[in-house]
Amino acid sequence: MNGSSRPDYVLLRAAREGDGEAFGEFYRRRRALLLAYLRPRVPDAETAADLLAETFAAALLAIRDTARALPDEPVAWLMTIARNKLIDSVRRGRVEQAARERLALEPLEIDDQDIARIEELAASTDVAGSLADLLPADQHAALKARILDELEYADIASGLRCSQAVVRKRVSRALRTLRAGLEAPE
Fold it and tell me: Do 140 and 115 sit in the same domain of this protein?
């Protein structure tokens, strides 16, 4: 778990209570996963970096909002934010900056070395392979189709020749398995 035994949900709770380093740890732990998800879906590393920054800024704003419950599945929650930011950027033709502006963050400036590091992190983080190592085959297939391939439950059910309820259960079990595996102390 990248050097810490604190589960993601504990880091988010600590960040809500004002521990900035806890959110930094959550960021460092999950940035490669998000870059591996975002980079293949955008035209360049700069756009992936912008989406990464906006995703984490939105996540930080969300955990600071004490009227909202903290997520039960931090990784899935973060991936959902990233997916929504990606979809919004495609619709708008640019990456939104609203969350970063609300936090008064400086504009993101990256150089060639940063671009190379983004490409390296994205390429070296095999999202699907990581999931396959952690999950039973039926759960992996359902989760990959839903989260990585972004298919609707009806389409997944048709492809896997089962009901939508079965697919939903497999995705739910996969998320629960991932949470237990990713948040277990080293």
Answer: no
> Do residues 118 and 147 both lie within one domain?
no
Q: Give, in degrees to the nearest 5, the angle at Cα 121 between 118 and 124.
A: 145
Q: In this structure, what token pair is assigned to residue 142?
A: 């359902």
φ, ψ for residue 78, nearest 5 deg: -65, -40
Percent of the chain with pLDDT over 70: 75
Burial of 135 (0-12, 13-18, 19+ CB in 10 A): buried
Separation CA 40–CA 133 (nearest Å): 21
Same domain for 167 and 153: yes
Q: Count up the domains in the chain and report the number.
A: 2
- Cα 102-107-52 angle, rounded to 5 deg: 80
Q: What is the pTM of this model?
A: 0.61
Whether residue 110 contacts residue 46, with contact meaning beta carbons closer than 8 Å, is answered with yes
Look up residue 126 and give its amino acid.
Answer: D
